[in-house]
Request: fold
Amino acid sequence: MIGAKDLIKFSEKVSILYAEDDEKLREDTSRLLSTFFKNITIAVDGKDALEKYKPDLFDIVISDFVMPEMNGMELTKNIKAINQEQIIIILSAHDEHHYVEELKKAGVDDFIFKPLNIQQF
Reply:
């Protein structure tokens, strides 16, 4: 079993790429993530995320689903073409749940439904 000190050390080493086009949600979620993780890179949309993506730099990619320029599905496909092993989590509004099966086929590892609820974590 991992102790609290080990978990804190582990979380400090995890690097995250977070893509969200909504400024308020991006700020709120970044603040939440930063309570657990220290290495977070922010992208303002899918295109920006793909430009910042480096397979050896990020442990986890967290992305909104609906974004201008490049949505979460396109971002997932592009990243998986570069690195099939990349962990990707999609943030999705509850009314977008019908895309879940397509996203799973594209290689998404997990989903978090918005609005965010701290009890989900």
Observations:
- The first helix runs from residue 4 to 13.
- The mean pLDDT is 84.
